[in-house]
Write a structure and sequence with these properties.
Blueprint lengths: L20 H4 L5 H72 L2 H4 L1 E8 L5 H11 L3 E8 L2 H14 L12 E5 L3 H6 L3 E2 L8 H4 L3 H7 E2 L10 E2 L2 E13 H6 L20 E3 L3 H11 L9 H4 L3 H15 E4 L4 H7 L4 E5 H10 L3 E4 L6 E10 L20 H9 L5 H4 L30 E2 L8 H4 L3 E2 L5 H13 L6 H17 L2 H5 L1
Parallel strand pairs: 1-2, 1-3, 8-9, 8-10, 11-13, 12-14
Antiparallel strand pairs: 3-12, 4-12, 5-6, 7-10, 7-11, 7-12
GO molecular function: polyamine binding
InterPro entries: Sperm_putr-bd (IPR001188)
Pfam family, one: SBP_bac_6
C-alpha cells in the first residue's frame, strides 16, 4: 500500500498525492534526482498557490462593497439626524428671539413727567404717545399745588435719599417761574444742555430767553445757562360780578386804581402774595413790579408806597390765596384779584362774572419744564433715576411748544396761553374748533392780555436784598389795629421763613 507524502509548502495547506520515493528516483543520478524533486515541488507550490488565491480572493472582494454600502447608509442616517437636530435648534432660537423682541423693557424709552394738576391738557399726553409709538414708556404724576410739588424734590437733598415716588426721580418736572431762583440756588434742578442747537429754543421769543437765562445763584444773567422751558403762561386778573355792578350802578373795573374806589371798600378779595400786593400798589403809582430801589424809582419813595398800601388794606376784605375764590362765590364780595389760572376756572362755573386785565399792566406767571438734578444723589434703590435724563426730553419740550398745542388754551379747556402767544401773535385755529362751552366776558384774548396791554406786563424778577428789606419794612409798618389781614399775611410769610427758609423764594 503506497504511502501519502505531505510536503510542507508554507503557503498551501491542501494535501497532494505523491509517488513512492523508490519509484520516482529509480535509475536516475543523485544530483538530477535532487533537482527534479525541487522543480516538481516548486511547480506544485505555484500551481496550488495560484489556485488557492483565485479561490479565496473573489469572496473577499465581494464582501467589501457590502461594508461600504452599510457605512454610506449609516452616514446618510447620521446626516439626516444632525440636520433634524439643527432644524430643531434653529426653531428654538427663533422662538426665543421672538419672545425677547416681544418684551417691552428691552426696546422702550422711558419718560417720566411730574406736573401741577390741571396744567397739562389731556390731549397733549394722548397726542404725544401716538406720535412716539409703542416703544415709549410714558408716565406722568400730578401734584395739587406748587408748594407740595416743590417741597418734595428738596427732601432727598436733606436726607440723602431718593425713591421712585420722588419728583426728583422724574426726567422732567413742571415748576412755577417764581420758584426758579430757589430751585437753581439749592441745586434741585440742572441746566438744560445743548439748547442752542434745539429747534424749540430757536423759536422762543427773546423775552423768554432773557428771563430763563440764569447764573448758579438763580439771578438773571446774559452769560448764564438756560434752566427751564415754558409750556404755559398767564397773568394777574381782576374778576367782578357784573350783576352786582349793574344793580348798584357802578362803573366796571378797568385798572388797578379801581381797587381804591370808596364804593368797593370791603368788597374786594385778594391773594396774600407780598409780590402781588405790593406790586399792585407800585403799578397803581406808575412804577414797575421789579422796582429795585423804591426810594429812588417811585415818586414819594417808601412813605408814599406805605400810605397807599395801608389804604388798600382797608379796601380788601380778605387776603388769602387759598380761600378767596370760595368767598367770592358765596359771600358779599364783588371783586376778586388773583392769578388767571385760579380765577378763569371759577368764573366759568359762575354766571355774571367778567374777567379783566388792568390797563396799566400786570405781572405774568409761567409754568416751566425743568430737569431735576438726580445725578447728584447716590442711590442703588430700584426705581431711582441713576441713569441720565431721558433722550425724549427735548422731543417733549418741542412738542409742548408746537403751535397746534395752543388749541386747548383757545378752547379754554385749561387756563393760560401758549408760549408763542407772548410774541404778540397766536396760531390760526379754525373758528369751529373754538366754539362750544361757556365763554369768559372781559378783555382776555386766547387766555392772555390784549397786545396793547401785554406790552406793559412783566415777569417777576428776583429781588435784591435791599429791595427785600423794603418789602419787609412795608409789611411790618402797617401792623396797626384794623390791619389784621395784613398782619395775617405777614405772619404767614414769617412762618415760611422760620421753618423752611424760603423767604426769598416766596418773594421772588
Amino acid at each position: 500500500m503506497p504511502q501519502l507524502h505531505y510536503p510542507v509548502t508554507g503557503l498551501c495547506r491542501h494535501p497532494q498525492p505523491s509517488l513512492p520515493t523508490a519509484t520516482r528516483f529509480r535509475n536516475q543520478p543523485l544530483p538530477l534526482k535532487v533537482f527534479t524533486r525541487v522543480a516538481v515541488s516548486t511547480v506544485l507550490f505555484l500551481c496550488f498557490g495560484v489556485r488557492m488565491c483565485l479561490a479565496s480572493s473573489p469572496p473577499a472582494a465581494a464582501a467589501l462593497p457590502t461594508v461600504q454600502d452599510e457605512q454610506t447608509v449609516q452616514d446618510d442616517q447620521d446626516g439626516r439626524k444632525q440636520d433634524n437636530k439643527e432644524t430643531v435648534v434653529d426653531k428654538e432660537l427663533e422662538e426665543a428671539f421672538n419672545a425677547w423682541k416681544s418684551k417691552t423693557f428691552a426696546l422702550t424709552v422711558p419718560l417720566k413727567v411730574v406736573a401741577l394738576r390741571g396744567s397739562i391738557p389731556p390731549s397733549w399726553i394722548k397726542d404725544f404717545i401716538n406720535s412716539q409709538g409703542r416703544r415709549m414708556k410714558f408716565n406722568v404724576k400730578y401734584y395739587a399745588s406748587l408748594e407740595n410739588m416743590f417741597s418734595d424734590p428738596s427732601i432727598p437733598f436733606t436726607k440723602g435719599k431718593i425713591g421712585p415716588a420722588s419728583a426728583l426721580a422724574a426726567d422732567i418736572v413742571g415748576i412755577g417761574d417764581s420758584w426758579l431762583k430757589f430751585a437753581i440756588n439749592k441745586g434741585i434742578i440742572e441746566p438744560i444742555r445743548d439748547v442752542e442747537d434745539q429747534e424749540w429754543f430757536k423759536s422762543l421769543d427773546d423775552k423768554w430767553k432773557v428771563y430763563l437765562r440764569r447764573n448758579c445763584e438763580g439771578e438773571i444773567d446774559p452769560k448764564g445757562d438756560i434752566w427751564a422751558s415754558p409750556y404755559r403762561w398767564g397773568c394777574m386778573v381782576i374778576a367782578y360780578k357784573t350783576n352786582k355792578f349793574q344793580k348798584h350802578k357802578l362803573a366796571p373795573v378797568e385798572d388797578w386804581a379801581d381797587l381804591w374806589r370808596p364804593d368797593l371798600a370791603g368788597r374786594i378779595l385778594m391773594v396774600d402774595s407780598p409780590r402781588e400786593v405790593v406790586g399792585a400798589v407800585l403799578k397803581y403809582m406808575g412804577a414797575s413790579y421789579n422796582t429795585n430801589d423804591i426810594n429812588a424809582e417811585v415818586n414819594g419813595g417808601r412813605d408814599v408806597v406805605k400810605h397807599n398800601l395801608a389804604l388798600l388794606a382797608k379796601q380788601v376784605r380778605l387776603f388769602d390765596s387759598s380761600n378767596y375764590l370760595k368767598a367770592f362765590g358765596v359771600g358779599d364780595a364783588w371783586v376778586a384779584v388773583g392769578w388767571s389760572s385760579d380765577i378763569i376756572p371759577a368764573a366759568k362755573r359762575m354766571s355774571n362774572v367778567a374777567v379783566v386785565v388792568p390797563k396799566s399792566g400786570v405781572s405774568l406767571w409761567a409754568d416751566l419744564w425743568a430737569i431735576p438734578a438726580a445725578s447728584r444723589i447716590q442711590t442703588n434703590r430700584i426705581g431711582g433715576r441713576i441713569r441720565g435724563p431721558s433722550p425724549l426730553i427735548h422731543q417733549w419740550i418741542e412738542f409742548c411748544l408746537q403751535s397746534a398745542r395752543a388749541l386747548p388754551f383757545k378752547q379754554e379747556v385749561i387756563p393760560g396761553a401758549s408760549p408763542s402767544h407772548l410774541q404778540g401773535h397766536s396760531a390760526n385755529v379754525p373758528v369751529e374748533l373754538t366754539k362750544g362751552g361757556p365763554r369768559i366776558n372781559g378783555n382776555l384774548v386766547d387766555g392772555a392780555p390784549p397786545p396793547d396791554i401785554l406790552e406793559r406786563c412783566e415777569f417777576l424778577e428776583p429781588l435784591s436784598n435791599s429791595t427785600l428789606s423794603d418789602y419787609h419794612w412795608l409789611l411790618t409798618s402797617i401792623q396797626e389795629p384794623g390791619h389784621g389781614l395784613i398782619h395775617k399775611m405777614y405772619q404767614n410769610i414769617i412762618s415760611v421763613v422760620k421753618f423752611s427758609g424760603w423767604f426769598n423764594s416766596k418773594l421772588t
